[in-house]
Design goal:
Largest sheet: 5 strands, mixed
Structural class: alpha+beta
CATH architecture of the largest domain: 2-Layer Sandwich
CATH topology of the largest domain: Ribosomal Protein S5, domain 2
Mean pLDDT: 95
Number of domains: 2
Number of strands: 12
Low-confidence stretches: none
Strand content: 15-25%
CATH class of the largest domain: Alpha Beta
Length: 375
């Protein structure tokens, strides 16, 4: 069982700041069932919260200083400090917190200083939105102690802005919306252009299996940024504001573009369609079709978007070889991270253990079964 709990973050806060916290808040990581790299193209996504969460404890200070300590993000017992209103990038985890205070001020929500403790069991670099869970949890805590009038959607937008503008990771809005709005019983069908969303239950005879490959990624690094720029180039070449504005009927025009932007655009257009079909399959209880869409999505990410890595492909292949698995795919921004598999209800834990064991033997990496959560 996880040791990231309300009690553990309170204990960490007391140990670091020698007083009681004024507010406790948390936010979950997420697994994206389907819809990868569609969010910053204005398209559709289908994430779901996972049991792993980030917890924060926070209290106001009487000055403009922010003191932050994370038990998981590096530094152990070390307190990192900055002045609210004079945020300066440090290339460390505290930049996520600095980005949030800067985003709040720019949006008309100036705040004072605070003490902040963080405890999380959302694995870093796993493709499960550890950064978004941190952002939303911190914003929820700050909303509470400073009495800010912020909706859950606005929290998500501020988290994205912090990550884009201050941290320098060009992510879309899916992760923060999932951390702010999703639960671990239903998928969040989100139109990232209109921000309309709908909760769609997973069919009762199906279950999710999430396995972390042990190969970490970094959204602020070059590959993710390159893919986003390639999508922008493709949209400009096709004369549309975003790839969301195209459909399957436009694929012949897309094919005429130079490589690789033709393949990048093809992935986004077909992935948007797969999200829509996945929602229909879930509502119809059609696990076989939903699994096929998972498999088609992974092939598109591997071949057209080139965002997979050999270890992820191995995990997907091993999952497909198991009885009771309908489909499997890379989940998250790619270039490492985790896979999500759709399996028969009751089979996820056993399948995960077998896949992880063979993966370790063949790759040398230690895989971790994250969903279903053990304990």
């Amino acid at each position: 069982m996880s040791d990231a709990t309300e009690a553990s973050v309170c204990d960490h806060f007391r140990r670091m700041f020698h007083r009681e916290p004024g507010a406790i808040a948390s936010a979950p990581g997420r697994v994206n069932l389907i819809g990868e790299h569609t969010d910053y193209n204005g398209g559709f996504v289908l994430p779901m919260a996972i049991p792993q969460r980030t917890w924060v404890a926070v209290s106001q200070r009487q000055d403009r200083r922010a003191h932050a300590s994370s038990r998981n993000l590096g530094g152990g017992e070390r307190i990192r400090e900055f002045t609210v209103g004079a945020e300066t990038p440090t290339k460390s985890w505290v930049d996520y917190v600095q980005g949030l205070t800067q985003a709040l001020a720019r949006d008309g929500y100036p705040i004072g200083g605070f003490d902040l403790a963080i405890v999380s069991d959302v694995p870093l670099g796993s493709g499960l939105s550890s950064s978004a869970a941190l952002e939303v949890a911190v914003l929820r805590g700050l909303r509470d102690i400073f009495g800010l009038s912020l909706s859950d959607v606005r929290l998500a937008q501020l988290g994205q802005r912090a990550e884009n503008d201050f941290v320098g990771a060009p992510v879309g809005l899916m992760d923060q919306m999932a951390a702010s709005l999703a639960d671990d019983h239903t998928a969040l069908f989100l139109d990232t252009r209109t921000l309309d969303y709908e909760q769609v239950p997973l069919p009762a005879d199906g279950a999710l299996l999430v396995i972390n490959s042990g190969v970490a990624h970094n959204h602020a690094s070059g590959d993710y940024r390159t893919r986003r720029a390639e999508c922008d180039r493709a949209a400009a070449a096709l004369g549309v504001p975003q790839l969301r504005d195209l459909s399957l009927d436009d694929l012949p025009r897309v094919a005429a573009l130079p490589d690789p932007i033709s393949r990048r655009a093809r992935h986004v257009i077909t992935e948007d369609q797969r999200v829509l079909e996945s929602v229909d399959a879930m509502k119809a209880g059609d696990l076989r079709r939903l699994g096929e869409l998972f498999t088609e999505s992974h092939a598109s990410m591997r071949d057209d978007f080139e965002m997979s890595v050999p270890e992820i492909d191995l995990l997907v292949d091993l999952a497909h070889a198991e009885r009771g698995v309908f489909g499997a795919r890379l989940t998250g921004g790619g270039f490492g991270g985790s896979i999500v598999a759709l399996v028969e209800a009751g089979a996820a834990q056993a399948v995960g253990e077998r896949v992880s064991r063979v993966y370790r033997e063949r790759s040398g990496h230690m895989a971790t079964v994250l969903v279903p959560q053990v304990g």
